[in-house]
From TrEMBL:
It comes from Polaribacter marinaquae. It comes from the Bacteria. Keywords: ATP-binding, Cell membrane, Kinase, Lipid biosynthesis, Lipid metabolism, Membrane, Nucleotide-binding, Phospholipid biosynthesis, Phospholipid metabolism, Transferase, Transmembrane, Transmembrane helix. It is an enzyme of class 2 (transferase). It holds the Pfam family DAGK_prokar. This is Diacylglycerol kinase family protein.
Length: 126
């Protein structure tokens, strides 16, 4: 919560501290984020193995970021939904399904981009 006595710089630094705490919480407590980080590590190893270009690295990190952001926001929506209505409700199910669509969109795009980067390199192996 905002402290009215904080100046601009102090207020921003305080927000940054909470944001890093949130990032740490996501990494350490959420299985979906852990899974995405594991995939990101594998993709990075593949990037080194296939010696991908700078542009390909940029696209790879962009889609990794996109998936992590979407997954994190989906987690936040799930937490809010569970908090405001812990019991079963059709609308909560609908909201959670819609929210889960966001990381799914990101994952589909990341698969397409991975295909562009790696399929030609894998074909060259044979
Ligand atoms: N309270 C609820 N009422 C109705 N349906 C729900 C409710 N909670 C979950 N669901 C249904 O179950 C699905 C999975 O919900 P859950 O909260 O377990 O998300 P998840 O994607 O499995 O979680 P995570 O991303 O943490 O693995 C939802 O998309 C929704 O269809």
């Amino acid at each position: 919560m905002k402290n009215p006595n904080d100046g601009f710089v102090k207020g921003r630094l305080r927000s940054l501290k909470f944001a890093f705490r949130g990032t740490w919480l996501l990494i350490t407590t959420e299985d979906s984020i852990k899974a995405q980080i594991a995939i990101a590590i594998i993709a990075t190893i593949l990037g080194f193995y296939f010696n991908i270009s700078n542009i390909e690295w940029m696209f790879q990190f962009m889609v990794i970021g996109m998936v992590l952001v979407a997954e994190s926001l989906n987690t936040a929506v799930e937490k809010i939904a569970d908090f405001i209505h812990p019991d079963f409700h059709v609308k909560i199910g609908f909201i959670k399904d819609i929210a889960a669509g966001a990381p799914t969109f990101a994952a589909i795009i990341s698969l397409i981009i991975s295909g562009f980067i790696y399929i030609p390199k894998i074909i060259l192996l044979f």
